[in-house]
Amino acid sequence: MIETRAIVIRLEGEEALVESVQDGGCGNCDSANGCGSGKLTRLFGNKPRRFRVENAANAPVGAIVSVTLAEGVLLRSALLMYLLPLFLLLAGAMYGAQLLNGVWNADTGAAFGALVGLVSGFVLARKLSTGMHMRSVARPVTSFACEAGKI
User: Fold this and answer.
1) Gap between the Cα atoms of 59 and 106, Å rounded
2) Which of 4, 103, 107, 150 is the most buried (most CB within 10 A)?
3) Coil, strand or helix: which one is 31?
4) pLDDT at 78
5) CATH code reported for the domain at 2-25+38-71+139-145
């Protein structure tokens, strides 16, 4: 499970708008064995992230909650959003070079086909990611609520 702590900012029906309260990194940034990713996070801005979650814990505004995401969801989402458009870009470039070779030169056809494939890949990835199955699996939920103001 991927897990982070967040504070409930606003309630919207059965959902809650939460803001992440954890800093970047694992907390070992100041030790000699730490990798320093938290320092990079602070260097490039550590603006708190807000997102909507299912309020399964019925947490009130101001409560600190633990937000979890099922294993593998992040990897599947990344594959869907990156590899599908990339695959369709390459397929569109090959198809465009072959199909439009008589109309334009092969490079122009490949560029046109790649553009059509890339746009199609993003549109298809968007449709698949907003589908009922992905939405129910990939929704982060609050699983544990603490008292307001206590960590």
Assistant:
1) 59
2) 4
3) coil
4) 83
5) 2.40.50
